[in-house]
Automatic annotation (TrEMBL):
InterPro entries: PAPS_reduct_dom, Rossmann-like_a/b/a_fold. GO terms for molecular function: catalytic activity. It comes from the Bacteria. It comes from Chitinophaga jiangningensis. This is Phosphoadenosine phosphosulfate reductase family protein.
Amino acid sequence: MKRKLIVSFSGGETSAFMSQWLWQHKSQEYEMQFVFANTGEEREETLEFIQQCSDYFGFPVTWIECEPESKTKYTIVDFFTASRRGEPFEKVIRKYGIPNIALPHCSRELKEVPITAFSKKIFRKHYSTAIGIRSDEVDRISPYAQKKKLIYPLISGGFHPGVNKVEVNLFWSKMPFRLRLKGYEGNCKWCWKKSLKKLLRIAKDDPAAFNFPLRMEKQFGNYIPPNRVSLLQQKGKSIALPITFFRNHISAEEILLSARSANPIIRDDNRIYTQQTTIPFIDFGDTDFVGGDSCEIFSDCR
């Protein structure tokens, strides 16, 4: 009997590399369900890339969106019906408030909860979950991986021998298509876990990417759900109003205003095809909370 495997496909190139590799090399060993949790704030290029991967490599992807007020916790959509104006994200904000570094519940509620609910409906309790983290991202492995039955095929023994960012780039450079995004853009249009430098670059290039956080901060900046008050009290943290998404209590409006006069230079690491032999310079002003090009479930990017 085949073992059961949920493959979490985030829409990034590393996650896509893992998905196609598992489909080609482990289909005889595992019964797989590929799943993508759409937040409504993914870039259109990400949605197109997911569909292209499914069509080209042949693995079926189930698209889901969170339903925080329903018993099922998710609804099934597809490329054509998937939300593109932040609707799932807004539902989470209405229930839990604006996420930020103090209470980073967005990945949990938008991705982990619906994917877990979907997985249990399909496989009950007898399954593992594959996460697309590379060998150069081992610091993002969940400390609860064994308890939650998480596997990392691009790191773990018995699967792929290991792959890093350059090797993933080389693979996609030889494909007839790839994710049409710069490395710093990521799948989420404006992820608050990105460094200010990257957010300013994104806001400079595409101010409309910040329409959703701008609207949410205006609409829910002074909204404090009861569960948020109790959680912050447990952590011994206070609430500064208005609540914003971004680090250091910066608002989406402030980012957009600052971007007008800023011109940060960001390296596109999706186009690096040679291994570094020297220790790279680390710009501590350009450090993300997110370790990769996408926010993987159960990873250290939460």
